[in-house]
Prior knowledge:
By secondary structure, the protein is an alpha/beta fold. It has a single domain, classed as Rossmann fold. About 50% of the residues lie in helices and about 15% in strands. The chain has 8 helices and 7 strands. It has helices at about 15-25, 30-35, 50-55, 70-80, 90-100, 120-135, 140-145, 155-165, and strands spanning about 5-10, 30, 35-40, 40-45, 60-65, 80-85, 150-155. The protein has a 5-stranded parallel beta sheet, with helices on both faces. Strands 3-4 form a two-stranded antiparallel sheet. A hairpin with a 3-residue loop joins strand 3 and strand 4 (about 40-45). Helix 5 (about 90-100) crosses helix 6. The protein is globular.
Amino acid sequence: MKRVLVLGNAGAGKSSFAEALAGKIGIPCIHLDSHYWRPNWVPTPREEWPSVVRRLIDRDEWVMDGNYSTTLEERIQRADTAIYLRVRRPIALWRVVRRRILYRGRVRPELPEGCYEKVNLEFLKWIWNHPRRAKRGTFPILERYSDSKVVLYLDPREAREFLHSVA
């Protein structure tokens, strides 16, 4: 494993899993959120984002977390492994709310300055509807590459076991 994508719903544990995996195999962890978001939740302009991602995936080794469907195809072409973290919607919602409480008044380490954790109805709906979007977008792309890439779908227990098994 030299180039690993970590995908999943908000609250699935992508960032934590990516950090842990990168630490275990000794390669850099790239949080796409930290490259997409600019201070105070200002997004990277749509026309710039693909070139930002290209520079990141051109590196020799990485564990990269984040969905960003507009660049998924290009990222999976470069990856040797894709891991989709499956988590039930109520758990994802709970984790996001808990994260908001834990980081109240603080910015998560992987986010730029001024990107304070926020939870609103729109974001909660986005989380709830993620499985439907993944079925239409993410899963077909992963399936297309499953013959040439290692593609894993892990629930929380399987994710812990996987990390434990990695030397």
